[in-house]
Amino acid sequence: MAQENKKQGITIIDNVEEHKKMVEEIELNEEETKQQIRIYEEDFIQGLIDAAGYTKEDTQHIEIARGGKLYFAFDIRPLSEDEYDRCKKKHTKYVRNKQFGMKLPEETNSVKYRDALIYTATIEEDRKKLWDNKKVWESLRDKGLQIMNGLDVIEYCLKAGEKDKILECIDALSGYETDLEEVAKN
């Protein structure tokens, strides 16, 4: 029997030949093929619609605790590829190359990029309560910190290691493989 491994909602067939033996192949004429497509079309359409809602439905709860004391908590959601790209572009410095006549990326501010990913992945309700909370901004300013936006709150309130763990959670929710052993096998 073919062994199947399920990771991140994707079925990986280890033994393709064995799996093919389990599937019965039948010959259909053109009309029968069209009829089969019509029968399952609504299921496919609904599956696509349901799959597209992943950024709203999948969430993970994050708690920031140090020394056994819970400081704050928030929920994150997966990011789309476009959201990752927008965060990277926004925090990348571009320079004009006169030889080619176009802008080329020179340097990405990785600190702001990482903060932007966390900010974007935080669900709207928690973003308003934590990162965009004007009372928090004023309190941090009173401590002498320069706060201009929610990214600055993330920068000052989360340790580098905490950011790493949160980013790993965001990547896992977003469907990126983080299993190094599995990557090494391929």
What's the number of helices?
Answer: 10
Mean pLDDT: 82
Q: Tell me the total number of β-strands.
A: 6
Helix/strand/pairing class, anyone? Answer: alpha+beta
Poorly predicted spans: 1-12
Radius of gyration over all CA atoms, rounded: 23 Å
> What global shape is seen?
extended
> Strand-and-helix sequence, N→C?
EEHHHEEHEEHHHHHH
How much beta, percentage-wise? 15-25%
Biggest sheet record: 2 strands, antiparallel
Give the termini distance in whole angstroms: 23 Å
Q: In order across it, which strands form the biggest sheet? A: 1-2
Share of residues in helices: 40-55%
How would you describe this structure to a colleague?
This protein has 186 residues and is an alpha+beta fold. Helices cover 53% and strands 19% of the residues. It has ten helices and six strands. It has helices at residues 16-22, 30-52, 54-57, 81-90, 110-121, 124-129, 134-142, 150-157, 160-173, 180-185, and strands spanning 4-7, 10-13, 60-66, 69-76, 92-97, 102-108. The strands form three sheets. Strands 1-2 form a two-stranded antiparallel sheet. Helix 4 (81-90) runs antiparallel to helix 5 (110-121) and helix 5 packs across helix 9. It is extended. Residues 1-12 have low confidence and may be disordered.
Summary keywords:
186 residues; alpha+beta; 6 strands; disordered N terminus
Entry summary:
This protein has 186 residues and is an alpha+beta fold.
How are the SSEs ordered, and which strands pair?
Elements: E1 4-7, E2 10-13, H1 16-22, H2 30-52, H3 54-57, E3 60-66, E4 69-76, H4 81-90, E5 92-97, E6 102-108, H5 110-121, H6 124-129, H7 134-142, H8 150-157, H9 160-173, H10 180-185
Antiparallel strand pairs: 1-2, 3-4, 5-6
Helix pairs in contact: 4-5, 5-8, 5-9
